[in-house]
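Lab notebook, bench 4. The sequencing result for the construct came back, and we need a structural model before the next group meeting so we can plan mutations. Quick request posted to the team channel:

Model the 3D structure of this chain.
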Amino acid sequence: MVSTLSATENQAVTARLATISDGDAPTRGDYTAAISWGDGASSAGAVSGTAGSTFTVSGSHSYAEDGTYQISVTVVDNGGARVSVSGTARIADPPGLLALLDLVEDLLGG
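Done. Here's the predicted structure in token form:
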């Protein structure tokens, strides 16, 4: 489900990143999810939904620098089956004065 996520650097973004459908009428406790944010950081994904339905994987992250990052979400069920999906995060500089300060920081190598 992850396609393109857009955000601003140094601001937390929370998003639904993947959808899980399983015909075995599972519960959300049957799954674990891990998110690789593409900038060296990773975190557990939050699995939500109602037993026997479609579940979603959500996560929250803040990128320190603008740029394009490859996001990967891996879901594992309690039987060991594993699936991964990936997408892109496009992170922009903050607007206005913050963008100017960010530019100065980049020029100074910080």
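The beta strands are 4-8, 13-20, 31-36, 42-44, 46-48, 55-61, 67-77, 82-92.
Will bring this to the meeting.
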